[in-house]
Design brief:
2 copies of one chain form a homodimer.
Chain A: H1 3-8, H2 10-42, H3 47-58, E1 62-63, H4 64-71, H5 75-87, E2 91-95, E3 102-106, H6 108-129, H7 134-146, H8 150-159
Antiparallel strand pairs in A: 1-3, 2-3
Helix pairs in contact in A: 2-6, 3-5, 3-6
Chain A binds a DNA duplex through residues 44, 46-48, 63-65, 73-77, 79-81, 96, 98-102.
Chain lengths: 162, 162
DNA sequence: TATTTAGGTCAGTCATATTGACTTAATTAT
DNA sequence: ATAATTAAGTCAATATGACTGACCTAAATA
């Protein structure tokens, strides 16, 4: 296919538009995650710690299994991160009603860090989103949701009590 | 602040909505990047290789420096990935007009892989996006673009000839 | 009682990224 | 013409986040 034909072909133009979306996702997600990194670095934590703190903060009495299902990592991967968070008193572990399970809860220290980290992203998103109409925001959210795999949509709905 | 007060406070409700957006970004981006991984794994490449192939494919005669500016990684990090891609003949390197610089180009093998990887994401996004109205898609793209840091917006515009 | 489930652990490996120090060759500025 | 800057590369050490595989314990369930 020649360059001219490419430009005249409506399907090709669509591909260019899709490629732009791929890049938009790449650049925007990178900048979205960049925020909390500075704070995390100071206390020798990484993004994995942030994610654990985030979901433990979100769901009271989250079990290890539930957390693994959300994060979709192995328990060996979670182990190191979680142990650090427990050792440094950001998270406390208690035994569940089913005594095989463990319940994870943020300490005040953990909650403070969670607030601090999430606030950076919240502030940033708020600032951006307030510039747009309800319709734009709706399109944004609807399409993001549609981009989630079915099984993970269920997970998302679950943790948002839908 | 009590739970009841939280629910009655319009600012708090907004924070819940923002948190949902944070999660939407997390889940959707994860599923968005998951696609090409299976193919990459078979040939012992990772996401970093995909990114290099993507941007080298996008911009003819890209230099090392330009690539580093887009990817925002160190040259030591790029080095390993790029050397593998050159050694396995996905990318060819030639000397630029400024003889200090090097120009990167995809070989046919590289182009084939790029097509294959990008097609997975393109197909997926197309399938999703076709279900939505122009207005929704517009909101989606506008807000994603707004989420990019100013300096990276310039980068995005540059590689999209704006 | 046997099986499954939740959680943990030890060991080894890989991919991606970092910082720091240093080199070479080419271009540009003084 | 010399000095400074730039583009690219390299060596070494380190961190982080992830993986597989094998194995264990204790509790709940079939």
């Amino acid at each position: 296919m020649t360059d001219l034909n490419k430009l005249l072909n409506p399907l090709f133009l669509k591909d260019i538009e899709i490629k732009k979306i791929i890049e938009l996702l790449f650049f925007s997600y990178r900048d979205f995650t960049a925020g909390p990194d500075a704070i995390l670095e100071k206390i020798n934590f990484g993004r994995a710690h942030h994610r654990v703190i985030y979901f433990v903060g979100k769901q009271k009495n989250l079990t290890i299994k539930e957390l693994l299902l959300i994060l979709q990592i192995t328990k060996q991967s979670l182990s190191r991160v979680l142990n650090q968070l427990v050792k440094e008193k950001y998270i406390v572990v208690s035994v569940g009603e089913d005594k095989r399970t463990k319940k994870l809860t943020l300490t005040q220290k953990g909650q403070d860090l969670e607030d601090q980290l999430t606030m950076i992203q919240t502030k940033r998103i708020k600032k951006i989103i307030n510039k747009f109409s309800e319709k734009d925001i709706n399109g944004f959210k609807k399409i993001l949701y549609a981009m989630i795999e079915q099984k993970n949509k269920i997970k998302f709905d679950e943790i948002n009590n839908k």
